[in-house]
Structure formats: C-alpha cells, structure tokens
Amino acid sequence: xxxxxxxxxxxxxxxxxxxxxxxxxxxxxxxxxxxxxxxxxxxxxxxxxxxxxxxxxxxxxxxxxxxxxxxxxxxxxxxxxxxxxxxxxxxxxxxxxxxxxxxxxxxxxxxxxxxxxxxxxxxxxxxxxxxxxxxxxxxxxxxxxxxxxxxxxxxxxxxxxxxxxxxxxxxxxxxxxxxxxxxxxxxxxxxxxx
Length: 194
Prior knowledge:
The N and C termini lie far apart (about 45 Å). Helix 2 crosses helix 3 (about 50-70), helix 2 crosses helix 5 and helix 2 packs across helix 6. Strand 1 and strand 2 form a beta hairpin. The strands form 2 sheets. The protein has a two-stranded antiparallel sheet. A two-stranded antiparallel sheet has the order 3-4. It is built from 7 helices and 4 strands; from the N terminus they run αββααββαααα. By secondary structure, the protein is mainly α.
C-alpha cells in the first residue's frame, strides 16, 4: 500500500467515527480525500455544456462545499400536508471514493484513467456504471446512489438550472418577495448560455 492510499484510508475511517457528541471530519473545502480531479471529470461529462468550463467547475466547487457543510440529524422542511419532521441522514460522500475508484478501474480496462478519457468515453463509462447500479431517475437530492447522479441532482434541482431551462431570472427557492411578482421574470442575457 502506498503512502497516499494509506492516508486516504485513515482519513476515510476518521471521517465516519463518532466520539460521543464530537464527530471527526475528514472532509475539507476540497472534495473528500483529494478527489477533485475525478469529480471535475465527472462534471465535464454530465453537466450541461452550455455552462462552459468555468460554470461546470463552479458547480463542482459548490457541490464540494455543500458536502463539506453537511450536518447529520438536522431537521428538514416537511412541506405542506406532512406532519412528520424528517432529519438529514449521514453525508452521501461516504460512498463516493469507492465509486470514483470503480470508475477508474473500468477506465483502466479501456486503456487509461477516467479523468484522462475523452468526454464520450467518460459518458459511456458513466452510462454503464449507472445502468449497473439500476439508477433509473435522478434523486430529489444527492443520496449516495452514485456520485454522477448526485452531482446532476445537485445541479438540476437548483435555482440556476431552473433559470437556464426557462432562460429567465425566475429565482426558484430564493424568496424574492411580493413586489414585482405580477411581472414576467427578466430574460437572461445570451452571455449566460456561453
């Protein structure tokens, strides 16, 4: 076992250990265990090309920050008509390192690493892996089913994706207030689409 693998293993174990009311966190602002490069490669394959390279990188960064800030056991909005309060589970990130390693292993059987494969090859690998995992729909929020579908869910359920879809500054889930709510949302500029 090389030194990097040893440190990754120790950090992964520390990231899930509970010590009474204190939790040891292995995650930092970067993706868990230094997996930023493969996550960006996944983002390039599954996020809309209309976001551009910088936009996809920003979504990946936002996703890693969202994972870093995850808190287990927090009350979630129960919505209308539901009387049961639901709490957040453990972070879905605990599944991601093994999933990234599986992507790399599959890419190696095809002649190289996942991150260095062409976009078309990455999409083919992801399609195969997601099909094998029997994931047929994006979750409403990241759930650990697969890192690629969780990244897509993170983006496609966002206010930004909604605005891009309708090409208007709708601001879903942003609590805009009532002033101006009777007017059509402002159209997004063409620069927003690359």
